[in-house]
Amino acid sequence: MTMRSIAAATALSLCSCLYTASAGAETPAAEMPRAPGAQITTLTAPGYFSEPSVAVNPGNPQQVVVAYQVPTHIAYSTDAGATWLHAKNVAPADFKVNGDVSVTYDSKGHAFVCYIAFNKLGTFNYWGHATNKNGIYLRRSLDGGKTWEASPVTVSEQQQQPGVPMEDKPYVVADTSHGPYAGNLYIAWTRWGLKDSRMVFTRSTDDGKSWTTPVEIDQHPGLPRDDNGALEGFDGAVGADSTLYAVWSEGDDIQFTISRDGGKSFSRVRNILHTAPIMFAVQDFQRANGFPQIAVDPRSGDHKHAHLYVTWSDYRNGDIDVFCARSENGGRTWSEPVRVNDDPVHDGSDQFYQWLTVDPVNGAVSILFYDRRGDQENRKTFVTLARSVDGGKSFHNYAWSVKPFVANDQEFMGDYSGIASYNNRVYGAWTEDATPTGGRPAAKATAAKIAPDRGQDKAKERAPDQAKEQAQDKSGEKKKEEPTARNHTIIRVGVAEFPAGR
């Protein structure tokens, strides 16, 4: 999935400061209402950044973490997203490349970031061919995201020898319920081999300190190429009784399975939703997909009554739309898909790269996605927040960003975004191209003031073009600074605050 993206970023410079983009007078796409209480913070200078993940601490919702690549970075907030700081020493030093990040909190308030790491890619898109040592690793933060343990935990590692598979796109899920397996952590991912792709899974029952031997949870392997027909895009959610619900894509179908014994065994995998092909082309993007996400309303009860939601995007209507289906009986039956974006059908505007969250306090369903409505050329991209307060039966669309970006197919935008919510406060994290025209450098940004971190030096306030830092390889030798980064992508985090019941 993101192998080629993170490999190309090994030597690019990194940024440790936060920036607020210069204000613009543009109107939200197609005159959509602005998301209530919207604020947006730019976390990076332009560079090779993508694929953010965000999580809120359910025990202390003032704590929020955002992870992104390349390499693995963590930004954290202790005031519900009003200010952000970067954690130090998160990326591993013993691999050339790392990324494909995901983050979560457990019921103790510990934060976890999961990532892949490798030294060499296999054959383009045929990742299981000619690869070498690689693996999946986890870092823990026992203070909610501020500091991270020095040594990562090995989740799964492939040694350097002929024919080893490639581990890709892991996603970490925590059981924060009051069920019998509360505290468990789960990770599943795609394992690329020479002959096929497999969905493999592991669990931890000791706060992420150790992990079980990975097991295959798919019904049958998928194709071995990173394209339609492979098994990709795992996501999971845990219900009130500790039931783990999981989805991923295979070809034109979304597959579903559950575990009711803390990840020891799984139900027979079945296709629950038929889609158009899950990998597709989007103008100005190197690649794009509609991989699914799943979320559960923890207030809805046990596995017999759990309200589940699955989102994805596809082009059944010609242009790409975002869809949501719901189940009110723990996944036994599913509704017809609801179109999440509310622009006219067949208007030629693409909506894609969605991510899903259900508020554990009130059950509101929120979905973030890229949105190109209002642009006849289908290139200018906004970020939209869709929200449902009627159990996913209908969605109201809100403009989260007010200034569009235009991507460049020579720059990697990642394979996914992130969203989380708690008690009507919603957090989104996404990638933008910092060159609004898709080719020319953007105007200088204005540096944002950052609250100083206790015990750490105050971050310098610099404009992005002044924030270049020389990267170091694992030997500590400085590499030559590139005059212009090959990528100009940035990570932004948005906050929205909804009134109760809206």
Describe the structure.
With 502 residues, the chain is mainly beta. The chain has a single domain (40-435, 487-497), classed as Neuraminidase (6 Propeller). It contains one helix and 32 strands. A four-stranded antiparallel β-sheet has the order 2-32-30-29, with no helix packed on it. Strands 3-4-5-6 form a four-stranded antiparallel β-sheet, with no helix packed on it. Mean pLDDT is 87; it is low at 7-17, 20-25 and 440-485.
What is the gist of this entry?
The chain contains one helix and 32 strands. By secondary structure, it is mainly β.
Can you tag this structure with a few keywords?
single chain; 502 residues; mainly beta; Neuraminidase; four-stranded antiparallel sheet; 1% helix
Domains counted in the coordinates: how many? 1
Helix content: under 10%
Number of strands: 32
The CATH architecture category equals 6 Propeller
Which spans have pLDDT < 50 for at least 5 consecutive residues?
A: 7-17, 20-25, 440-485
So how many helices?
1
CATH topology (level 3) name:
Neuraminidase
Q: What is the C-level CATH assignment?
A: Mainly Beta
What fraction of residues sit in β-strands? 35-45%
Q: What would you call the structural class? A: mainly beta
Topology at a glance:
Elements: H1 3-7, E1 19-20, E2 39-42, E3 50-56, E4 64-69, E5 73-77, E6 85-86, E7 97-105, E8 111-118, E9 134-141, E10 153-158, E11 166-174, E12 185-192, E13 197-204, E14 215-216, E15 231-238, E16 244-250, E17 253-259, E18 270-274, E19 279-280, E20 288-289, E21 293-297, E22 307-317, E23 319-327, E24 338-339, E25 351-358, E26 365-371, E27 382-388, E28 396-399, E29 418-422, E30 425-433, E31 446-447, E32 489-497
